Amino acid sequence: MRPAASRNQLHRAPPINERPNERRRLGGLPIARDSLVLVCLGALGRDSRRFSNPSDFVADRFIAPGADPRDVLSFGLGMHRCAGAELALVTAEIAFSQLARRVEALATVSALQRQNRTVVRRFSKLEVHVSRAPAADQQRPQAP
User: Fold this and answer.
1) How do the pLDDT tens digits run along the chain, 144 residues long?
2) Which residue range(s) make up the domain with 80?
3) Is residue 36 part of a domain?
4) What distance in Å separates the CA atoms of residue 58 and residue 55, rounded to the nearest whole number?
């Protein structure tokens, strides 16, 4: 379930920008050549015609029957897919796996604060309370 949870989190807010090399129309509106167009692919992840409960975090959304991993557009798609996408997903899977072994619960302490940025979203404040798993100090990762 961890890879699916990572993909679900990524599909929620992945922005991408584009500069059209010719005049275009988008949703009936003219887009001038070389205009900066910000496409928030996270909005696609909020489409209730495609996803049930689109604004909810559903950890197993991408392993459920009928799920399509291509719905996660955070790293682009096709020939424009990020070359490091699989490395990022595997790294997240390992990190969350290790966290789950050592932590019983996480709870937010205060409201999350995001930085208002155009391309890369991140938190400026994320305070959490960590409840360690029993005997977490004795657990060590096992060699493969």
Assistant:
1) 566 666 666 655 554 556 667 788 877 888 888 887 776 666 767 788 878 888 888 888 888 787 777 777 777 777 777 888 889 889 988 998 999 899 999 999 999 898 877 667 788 898 999 999 887 455 555 655
2) 2-102
3) yes
4) 9
